[in-house]
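[Automated response] Your request has been received and processed.

Submitted sequence:
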Amino acid sequence: MTDVTSSDGTRLALVVEGPDDAPTVVLVHGLGLSTDSWGDVPARLAGAHRVVGYDLRGHAQSGDARTGDYSLEAHARDLDAVLAACVPAGERAVVVGHSLGGGIVLAAARRSGTARMAGVVFAGSGGSGVTAPGLPARSLPAPLAAALQRGWFGVLRAAALVGHRVRGVEAVSDALVRRSAFAPGEPAELVARVRESFLTTRPRALAGTTLASLSHDGTRLAPHLDVPTLVVHGTADREVPEDEVRDLLSALPDAELVSVPRAGHVLPLTHGPLVAEQVARWVARTSPARPTSPQEAS
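Generated structure:
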């Protein structure tokens, strides 16, 4: 299987690794990234798991949104489509979200429940958001929030277009990416990899999805995630501060925290072996034991 069609006709590009009869792991990447942002995590899991990664709508190899919709609701419908197509009947997957991917998982849990989810792992994701920088989403009157959203959509789309035209200014771009997504001392080649991914994401998708993430308050949705949830958090993650992690953990019905000292936001790239180990542990915890055949027993 190489792609899935979402409910509005948007094509989602898939990458599937591992044996068909193994427990399924579904990877949901972050804003402006792609399945490539999981680094070697899929390969590390694929020996004993069926690993499904997909590019978000408007990102990398996936198609542009057929209706122009890049809301979290649209992204949640996409995840529903991937789960429906890729999780065998009667089984459930462990869903792993990085950054915005965690918000998409929460939105999908609110929309459709967790019937296809055995468990969830947040790797560098906290679930909260704002309507515009410095303005909490939950405290703004609806008309003001809507006006700010319209204004910020224009600003963000223009910024994305400018970014495509000044890609030669790599030092500035890398400095911004390093400050927001990486801890001091993490490899420069990974910073460049993330920067290139952002700059090759289509501007409308980047702006629209950014806007959706800014107005998203995942802690309100956390009670819908009624399956065991693991939060893997870098202590030097500027995008997901400690108080945001505490808020998320307090709102989740069944959660565990693994802290990664001095790690930044892009854990799948910088700490791939650890992320893969924790995902495999969560699969073992949440997946029912497979029956042993007579041949295996002997």
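Summary generated for your ticket: The longest helix spans residues 142-165. The domain at 3-128+217-297 is CATH 3.40.50.1820 (Rossmann fold).
If you did not submit this request, please reply to this message.
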